[in-house]
Amino acid sequence: MYRSLKSKDMYAQISPTPRELSVCCGVSLLVKGEDVERIKEIAEEEGLAYLSISGLNNEFDNTRHKYG
Fold it and tell me: Helix, strand or coil for residue 7?
């Protein structure tokens, strides 16, 4: 899904799943809230699977949320 969104010039960032969403470690794709409906359409059109789309009610801190 990451490559598909990037090929369409959409914001997407691979990140560990936030603890607020899962107690298990995992990988998530950070996207903009306003892009969610289009992302669902792309996933359907291209047959891309995902477990869920969830939102967090917090600001993204680019200095804190940096994984390298």
Answer: helix
Give the per-residue pLDDT at 12: 93
Is 5 exposed, middle or buried, given 0-12, 13-18 or 19+ CB atoms closer than 10 A?
A: buried
The answer to whether the CB of 39 falls within 8 A of the CB of 8 is no
- The torsion angles phi and psi of 4, rounded to 5 degrees, stand at -65, -45
Instruction: Kindly report, residue by residue over 15-28, the tens digit of the pLDDT.
Output: 887 777 666 778 88
From the centroid of its chain, how far is CA 32? Answer: 8
- CA contacts within 13 A on the Cβ side of 56: 14
Cα 17 to chain centroid, rounded = 9
